[in-house]
Structures are given as C-alpha cells and as structure tokens.
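Field log, afternoon session.

UNIT: design team B
ACTIVITY: writing a sequence onto a fixed backbone
BACKBONE:
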C-alpha cells in the first residue's frame, strides 16, 4: 500500500500542475450547472413534472467529470507515459500493471468526487436542488458508473500502440458520449432516432441509473443499465490487465 500511496501522491501533483483536469473536470461542470440553473431556474422538466429541469439533469451533469477523466485523461496519460518510456522504467520496478492502473483510476476518481460535490453545492445553494432519492443509492450508482467509464479509459490506454492511436480512440469515445449520452444535451429532448443511437452508449445507461437514483424512481427501471455497467467494467478491466503494454 505504501507504493500505491507514494505513486498516487506523485501522479496527483503532476495532474494538478498540468491544469487540464482542473479545467475540464472541475470548472466545466460548474459552469454548465450555472448556465442551466440561470436559464431554466425552477422550471418543471416537462409539463406536469413534479421535479425541475435541474433535478432531472443533476445525475447527467455529475458525469461530465467522469467522462473527461475516464475517456480523455486516463488513456492519454497512459499513452504519453508509454511514449516517453516511463512505463518501461516502471517495468523493472516492483510496480505491477494493477498498481499503476489503480493509481490512475484513483486520481481521476478524486476529480470526479470533487466535481460531484461542486455540482451539488451549486445546484443546492444556488438553485434550491433537493435530491429526491437516497444519497446512499445515488453514491453507489455514481461509483459504479465511474468505474465502468474509467474501465474503458484503462482499456484504451493500456492497449493503445502509441499516443496518436490512443488520442484518436479517446476522442472518438469522448465527444459522442459527452454530447449524445445525455451528459450535456438532455436525453429526453432528442429525436427518437437519436435516442436509439444514444442507448448503445454505456454512459447513457449510466445516466439513466443516476437519474433514477436521484429522483427516487422504481428500481425495476434500472436493472438493464445496472447489469450493463457491471459487465462492461469486468470485461474492460480484465482485457486491460491481460493485454497491458509497457512499451
């Protein structure tokens, strides 16, 4: 555990100095919440809805940092380390792929949790947001969604041949999911055809899970997203550990 915490401290400091994650994982979600709150205020999500537009969007807004860290931060950092031969140096140390990948996941999980707190404080203090469901269920769902999305980043970063291919794969995953999964553009306002496309994206299923948890909707509505998130996480992590490339 000492090796893990030492490496975690180093990686966290490097990430903060880089400033990409503080901007995209912390500042960006906060700005989006402010814009939605000021534009829609306490307007109902739809005619006759018992909750506001912001309440319906809270779970989706909380995934912006998850998307940034899991689909851009993780794969690009790992591929950059591989390109600079940093991973090759780790290979001759007692550091295993599991520890190395675990540290990166821990760094971006911290960003995601801080972002969640910021999004909640702005929503609650600025616009009167109130979580209708159980916080325990919501946090469990949030960690599950975070783990499943991060597992995709671990897979891309762990097996990409070079930095260019990692960047292309990361961008191909990040931008469509950010726009069409419901993280920024509400799923409910999409045309039926676009909703069918969005349903294929794992983040869409994760957002459905978070929405149900935050609004206190019936558990039966989230069985499929729950199964898909767990299956995705197990499959991606397993493949990433088996196929991890040091150089």
């Amino acid at each position: 555990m000492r090796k893990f915490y030492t490496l975690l401290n180093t990686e966290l400091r490097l990430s903060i100095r880089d400033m990409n994650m503080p901007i995209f994982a912390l500042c960006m979600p906060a700005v989006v919440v402010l814009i939605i709150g000021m534009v829609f205020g306490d307007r109902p999500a739809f005619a006759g809805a018992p909750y506001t537009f912001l309440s319906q969007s809270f779970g989706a807004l909380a995934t912006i940092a998850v998307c940034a860290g899991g689909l851009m931060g993780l794969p690009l950092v790992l591929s950059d380390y591989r390109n600079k031969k940093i991973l090759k140096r780790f290979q001759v140390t007692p550091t295993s792929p599991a520890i190395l990948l675990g540290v990166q996941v821990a760094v971006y999980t911290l960003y995601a949790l801080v972002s969640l707190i910021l999004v909640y404080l702005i929503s609650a203090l600025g616009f009167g947001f109130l979580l209708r469901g159980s916080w325990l269920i919501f946090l469990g769902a949030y960690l599950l969604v975070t783990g499943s999305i991060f597992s995709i980043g671990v897979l891309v970063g762990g097996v990409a041949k070079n930095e260019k291919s990692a960047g292309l794969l990361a961008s191909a995953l990040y931008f469509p999911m950010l726009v069409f999964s419901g993280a920024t553009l509400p799923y409910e306002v999409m045309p039926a055809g676009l909703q069918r496309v969005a349903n294929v994206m794992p983040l869409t299923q994760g957002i459905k899970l978070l929405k149900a948890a935050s609004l206190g909707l019936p558990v039966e509505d989230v069985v499929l997203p729950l199964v898909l998130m767990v299956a995705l996480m197990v499959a991606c992590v397993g493949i990433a550990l088996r196929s991890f490339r040091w150089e």
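LOG NOTE: Residues 2-242 form one domain.
NEXT ACTIVITY: expression trials, pending approval
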